[in-house]
Specification:
Layout (H helix, E strand, L loop, with lengths): L7 E7 L2 E7 L9 H15 L5 E5 L7 H11 L4 E5 L6 H14 L4 E4 L8 H9 L19 H17 L7 E10 L5 E9 L2 H8 L4 H18 L3 E9 L12
Parallel strand pairs: 3-4, 4-5, 7-8
Antiparallel strand pairs: 1-2, 6-7
Length: 252
């Protein structure tokens, strides 16, 4: 799913080594100008790193195999394959997937993990740490990401939008956090604007009697409370704004 639109960095520590992961936008067949901009951003992110990791949902890779093949043809350089969600398939299926990808492309290495259950992650991190150049760390030891709270909270809401409405609204919404305020009772007030491209898109986001926006609010608020470990009051507003007027907002 195209749930990432811009480069998001996550920071991991392995012993004396700091590893910075860049989660780039996905690569897919672009049709509109907005989609083309997203794909261009993804290829740009791939070029600016020491190692390229391709993360694939091993449970559903067969549905996307043609897209994966097309992307690998364009990649044309060393890549580490990560087969995720191994906890959701049986061992014979996992072996078949491993053999298939091993024949499909000359990957630098193939890792099989379950991010949810923290299975296989140590081996991956340990492998990547071997290639880290000697030098000062780029981020403080206690920093987990380079993204602001405003950005992270907007990403959560946009993800819920996409997961709930991607069939109707592929890649055509933007979310901006206009207020992120900590209250005296230690709760958070988060106010966000969802920008839609058209009036018809706005109606889809709202849903009948506000059913869609209510569901998205509940899901986003629940995840935000887990992330920030505080009670969250989330207010969502939907407005119309063409992509050509503010393209930068649809790429974040």
């Amino acid at each position: 799913a195209q749930t990432t639109r811009t480069k998001i960095r996550g920071i991991a520590i392995c012993g004396y080594t700091q590893i910075v992961f860049t989660d780039s936008p996905g690569i897919f067949t672009a049709k509109t100008q907005l989609e083309k901009a997203l794909v261009k951003s993804a290829w740009s992110a791939i070029k600016d790193n020491d190692r390229t990791l391709l993360l694939i949902d091993v449970k559903s890779y067969l549905r996307n195999i043609e897209k994966i093949k097309a992307m690998l043809v364009k990649l044309q350089h060393s890549c580490i394959l990560i087969l995720n969600k191994i906890d959701l398939i049986k061992r014979p299926e996992l072996k078949m997937a491993y053999k298939y990808f091993n024949l499909l492309y000359k990957f630098e290495k193939i890792f099989m993990i379950s991010a949810l259950k923290n299975d296989g992650l140590f081996d991956l991190i340990n492998y990547l740490s071997e290639f880290a150049p000697v030098g000062p760390w780029l981020y403080p030891e206690d920093q987990a990401t380079d993204s602001s709270n405003d950005f992270l909270s907007a990403e959560i809401t946009r993800e819920k939008l996409f997961l709930n409405l991607h069939q109707e609204l592929p890649y055509s919404t933007a979310v901006i956090t206009e207020q992120f305020e900590k209250k005296k009772d230690k709760s958070l007030i988060i106010k966000q604007v969802i920008f839609a491209l058209k009036e018809s898109h706005k109606k889809i986001i709202l849903g009948e009697s506000g059913s869609n926006i209510k569901k998205i609010n509940i899901e986003a608020r629940s995840e935000l409370e887990k992330i920030f470990e505080q009670k969250v009051h989330l207010f969502l507003f939907v407005k119309i704004r063409p992509w050509s007027d503010h393209p930068e907002e649809y790429l974040v």
